[in-house]
Specification:
The protein starts with 5 loop residues before the first strand and ends with a helix. The mean pLDDT is about 95. The protein has three domains: about 90 residues, NAD(P)-binding Rossmann-like Domain (Rossmann fold, 3-Layer(aba) Sandwich); about 190 residues, Mur-like, catalytic domain (UDP-N-acetylmuramoyl-L-alanine:D-glutamate ligase, 3-Layer(aba) Sandwich); about 140 residues, Protein-Tyrosine Phosphatase, Chain A. It is built from 15 helices and 22 strands. It has a six-stranded parallel beta sheet with strand order 7-8-6-9-10-11, with helices on both faces. Strands 17-18-22-19-20-21 form a six-stranded mixed beta sheet, with helices on both faces. α12 links the parallel β19 and β20. About 35% of the residues lie in helices and about 20% in strands. The chain is an alpha/beta fold. α5 crosses α10, α11 packs parallel to α12 and α14 crosses α15. The longest helix has 16 residues. The chain is globular, with a radius of gyration of 23 Å.
């Protein structure tokens, strides 16, 4: 049986360290152990640290009553089931935050794509209209290091964080559902279920994208439901923002693409529910800071380049192509294989003003196959990003766009999309000036 006094922190990155300090303060009675798959740099003095197989033996033996699991550790690892069978309770930093601040007014934001931008749009609208709001969760800030905003706390939550989410936001927004992160969740259906865990409690007001058929069908019968992208409410139409039949004036909105106007429709819906007025007539986005690696446009010499490294699913690349409709695009695509279906993307490429396509391993080969020799534009295979950027820059017309929108992650070559995007920027600068 699990000890009544022993607890463990599983995963000791930013979230794990915040959980450790939280428990040391709020539960000094606990005998804490750090578990990690790899050696831990700079562990706290005097704390037991177990790594690798030794850590998993302790975990699965039922030694711990409580384990605080970091988001990157899959809830579906067999060691979790083995420990639970011995009586171990698993929780997360997000759950601990909600337990510490049960009276906080919270807005939970998730979705396969758009959650980062939309959560920041919501936060921006709340703050610029005089409300005290915090932005926490999957934004580079461990929630347990922060108190709630006096009026609202906006949580951007990933599927990893939602898989074991045991609480309820006052409002929860879901932007869309596309196949993603299947290995972590053990399948696409489980991924969808975990995403929709944000709507687990009927007391939460669910705000959902009516224009996304897959998502709308899964929540249509839910109580306490409000749509956006419905013609009666805030919605995007032809790249503009509307409320009902009336166009809303949008000032200083720097983000490209109809998908970002859809994100703004979601943000306005939430902000109005949170107490902001006047958004049905005018939305002022002056001062909003664009996120890196999301249709981030920059100049490299005389070339226009766009870092859209965040686009790890085909649907995101479709949005990027639409954002640059009318421009001659040299597209860099391909990366890790997660079973992506490239049929729709291939069809869009045949209709888009693609000047050249540079393909990366491993899914580049599948995209080439989906095009079935029908492309009128040049297709180039590259072994990695360095060669891909060099080939793209060579082929880019002066009035064109070099667009990295891979429709896949790239874990074979890079740790994450941020590293890939940063490398893309560096390489564009190098090759555009040679």
């Amino acid at each position: 049986m699990a000890s009544s006094e022993r607890a463990a922190i599983w995963g000791f990155g930013r979230e794990g360290r915040a959980a450790y300090h939280h428990l040391k303060t709020t539960r000094p009675d606990l005998d804490l152990t750090i578990l990690n798959d790899t050696p831990v740099a700079d562990p706290p003095d005097g704390v037991r640290v177990l790594t690798g197989n030794e850590a998993m033996r302790a975990l699965t033996s039922g030694e711990f009553a409580l384990v605080v699991k970091s988001p990157g550790v899959s809830l579906y690892r067999p060691e979790v089931a083995a420990a639970q069978a011995c009586g171990t309770h698993f929780t997360s930093g997000t759950n601990l935050w909600f337990e510490q601040y049960p009276q906080a007014k919270t807005i939970v934001v998730t979705g396969t794509k758009g959650k980062s931008t939309t959560s920041r749009l919501i936060h921006h609208l709340l703050v610029t209209h005089g409300l005290d709001a915090k932005l926490l969760g999957n934004v580079g800030v461990a929630a347990l290091e922060e108190a709630p905003g006096r009026n609202w706390t906006v949580f951007e939550l990933s599927s990893y964080q939602l898989a074991d989410f045991a609480h309820a936001g006052d409002i929860a927004l879901v932007t869309n559902l596309y196949p993603e992160h299947a290995p972590w969740h053990g399948g696409v259906e489980t991924y969808y279920r975990d995403k929709l865990n944000a709507l687990r409690d009927d007391k939460t007001i669910a705000v959902v994208n009516h224009a996304h058929g897959e998502l709308a069908a899964r929540v249509a019968g839910r109580a306490n439901l409000r749509w956006y992208n419905d013609e009666a409410d805030f919605h995007e139409r032809d790249g503009k923002l509307y409320f009902g039949a009336r166009e809303v004036e949008v000032a200083d909105f720097a983000l490209r693409g109809a998908h970002n106007m859809s994100n703004l429709a979601a943000a306005c819906t939430i902000a109005e529910m949170a107490g902001v007025t006047g958004l049905r007539e005018r939305v002022d986005m002056a001062g909003f800071q664009q996120l890196h690696h999301r249709l981030e446009e920059f100049q490299a010499g005389s070339l226009t380049c766009v870092d859209d490294s965040i686009s790890t699913v085909p649907q995101a690349t479709l949005a990027a192509l639409a954002a640059y409709a009318g421009r001659k695009i040299v597209l860099l695509a391909g990366g890790s294989d997660r079973g992506q279906d490239y049929t729709e993307l291939a069809a869009a490429l045949l209709k888009a003003p693609v000047h050249a396509l540079v393909l990366l391993p491993v899914t580049g080969a599948r995209l080439r196959e989906a095009l079935q020799g029908r492309a009128a534009f040049e297709i180039v295979d590259a072994p990695g990003l360095d060669v891909a950027v060099e080939e793209a820059v060579k082929r880019a017309p002066s009035d064109g766009v070099v667009l990295l929108s891979p429709a896949a992650p790239s874990f074979e070559e890079f740790r994450n999309f941020e590293e890939r995007g940063a490398r893309f920027k560096e390489l564009c600068g190098r090759f555009a000036n040679t």
